[in-house]
Amino acid sequence: MIGLNNLKPAKGSKHRKKIVGRGVGSGHGRTSTRGSKGQKARSGDGSKKIGFEGGQMPIFRRIPKRGFNNPFRKKYEIVNIGSLNKFDSGSEITPQVLKKAGLIGNTNFVKILAVGDIKKALTVKVAAFSKSAIEKINAAGGKVEIVK
After folding, report:
1. Domain holding 110: CATH number?
2. CB count, 10 Å around CB of 136?
């Protein structure tokens, strides 16, 4: 009969803790199952920081570095004026509308370039325009508004 007094763990589920460093006769003495010498045999040196190459000069320190990467740079998404023809005449074009239409990714900085022709009168409200894009939108009867 099974009761709380005679329950046992499943066979093979319990393991004896490996005891190391207790003499050669134990079978786990001398090098304490760590092999012989080297970085991984030392205490606390098993893990290295990212980019560590075994003491060799790391690649990111070997390659030359030039210029300056501005972390505050505004990256503009480019939209050609010809792709604005898919919108209805008289509609207002904003970065949110362009994102929903799949013309841009995740940004509010959009620049309209004058590649292609526009045939509809649209109100375009984005961060930047090329001069010729402004002329083409105005010539089609639309309006241009620069939004910060």
Report:
1. 3.100.10.10
2. 21
Label residues 120-132 b or e (16+ Cβ within 10 Å = b). bebebbbbebeee
- Cα torsion at 25, 26, 29, 32 (round to 10°)? 160
Residue 93 domain boundaries: 77-146
Nearest Cα to Cα of residue 127 among 103, 111, 115: 111
Question: In 17-81, where do the E strands start and end?
Answer: 77-80
53 assigned to some structural domain? no
121 domain residue, yes or no? yes
Q: In degrees, to the nearest 5, what angle opens at C-alpha 108 toward C-alphas 71 and 82?
A: 120
pTM over 0.90: no
Give the whole-angstrom CA distance, residue 131 versus residue 26. 84
In a domain? residue 71: no
Q: Is residue 98 in some structural domain?
A: yes
pLDDT tens digits, 3-26: 999 999 999 999 999 999 999 999
